[in-house]
Design brief:
Shape: rod-shaped
Number of domains: 1
Strand content: under 5%
Radius of gyration: 37 Å
Order of helices and strands: HH
Distance between the termini: 96 Å
Length: 100
C-alpha cells in the first residue's frame, strides 16, 4: 500500500510538473506576443512622429526662405531704412543684455 501511495504521489507530482511547464510555455508565448505588439506600436508611432516632424521641417524651411526673400527685397528697396533699423535693433539688444 505504501508503494502504491508513493507511486500515485509521484504520478501527481509529474502531472503537476507537466502542467506547470505547459502553463509556463503559454505565459512565455503570451509575453512574446505582447512584446511584439508593443514593439510594432512603438515603431508605428515613431514613424508617424518622424513623418510629422519632416512636414514641420519642410514647412519651416519654406517659411524661412520666403522671409529671407522678403527681407532681401526690402533691403534692396530701402537700404538706408534697413541700415537704420539694423542699428536700432543692435542698440536695443545691447541695452537689454547690459541690464542683465
Amino acid at each position: 500500500m505504501a508503494h502504491s501511495t508513493t507511486s500515485e504521489t509521484m504520478d501527481k507530482l509529474q502531472q503537476s510538473a507537466d502542467q506547470l511547464g505547459t502553463n509556463a510555455c503559454g505565459m512565455m508565448r503570451s509575453a512574446q506576443e505582447t512584446a511584439a505588439d508593443w514593439t510594432q506600436k512603438a515603431q508605428d508611432n515613431l514613424e508617424a512622429l518622424s513623418n510629422a516632424a519632416s512636414g514641420y521641417v519642410e514647412e519651416g524651411q519654406k517659411t524661412a526662405k520666403a522671409l529671407g526673400r522678403t527681407v532681401s527685397q526690402k533691403v534692396q528697396e530701402s537700404p538706408v531704412a534697413a541700415l537704420l533699423l539694423a542699428a536700432g535693433l543692435g542698440i536695443l539688444v545691447g541695452i537689454m543684455l547690459k541690464r542683465r
